[in-house]
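To make this tangible, this section ends with a sequence with its structure tokens:
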Amino acid sequence: MDETYIKVKGVWKYLYRAVDKQDKTFHFLLTAKRDMAAAKRFFDKAMGANGDPNKVVIDKSGANNVAMDTINAGRDVSILVHQVKYLNNIVEPDHRAIKSMTRPMLNFKSFRSASSVLAGMVLSH
């Protein structure tokens, strides 16, 4: 799981994405903020749609770590959280594909159009 930023109406928004071991994106979420509530919402939606993982690999973002700690607090069997500080996470290099497609657009005009275009990009990739 990782997040990157996308510009919508001149303001940075955050695209959370989760990939599996085969480098296939299985869930994404575009949010206005990068905080614990957004990270928890992303994890809850991803786990609700795809089941509970055995291990989650995240970066050193404090919001992601706190969200996973909150999720693990209410569980009998906790999910193993592995934090990777540098760009050796599988999802990090994959951001380049989205950035190279969205950069020529310069900007999305609305949050809704950004969400639907990014859904198409993730689906086609």
